[in-house]
Amino acid sequence: MVPVPRKVTIVVLSASCMLCGCQDNRSSLQIRVPLDRQYILDDPSERPIKVSLPMDQPFNIHTKRSNQNPGLDGTAQGHSDATAAGRASCSVEAANGGSALAEFTIGHRIANQTDYFQNLSVELDCRWQHALHTSTDPTADTIARADLQILVLDAKGKILATIPALKTDSDQIQASAELLDHRKLSVSLEPKLRYDIILTGKVEAQSAAGQEASARLEVNDLKINLSFCSEQKEITQPAP
Q1: Domain count along the chain
Q2: Residue 46, Cβ density class (10 Å: 0-12 exposed, 13-18 middle, ≥19 buried)
Q3: Average pLDDT score, the chain
Q4: Quick check: is 113 in a domain?
């Protein structure tokens, strides 16, 4: 039996990130950013360089995707959106055997064009909310899910850091929530490589015959503050 949805407000002040070196197949959106829209870091000085997004410049990554499978006799709908101003959303509905998925990615691409490693400090603030719903007494085939995470990836798609902000489904007690989120992380950027700092969200709905499921995830007022500081350490070339 699905608990009655509740709405809560929580303020998250900080969270630790997990450093890793794997591919993340959940971040499946193809990200293409024209060179003239990328943030080019070409100042090798040791003084900190600070950038506030989207105040200093709009987010250069804002992608969306959705797909639906109504099955034989069911229905399915999916919708997603993401803007350069820091807003994103995705929602799905499925009934009578249908299923749907929707996702978004919003963030910024950085190219470290210096000859030095750069220490990058990231502070992310946003307001987000989610809501999940299923039929009363759902079967195992009827479920709604929501997932939100912060990632730093290099040009090859390798994850340098990740912070899970939300991972829940309709079997959990808390079926809806609204949060003010503040997160921090730090990574080291190699010379002559590009990197993506992104917030990615995804919702899914799956329904059995005669049942329904829905999920919604919304992000507003996304702000990302970046601070770069050169380590003045060049890449060491192997001896001939």
Answers
A1: 1
A2: exposed
A3: 86
A4: yes
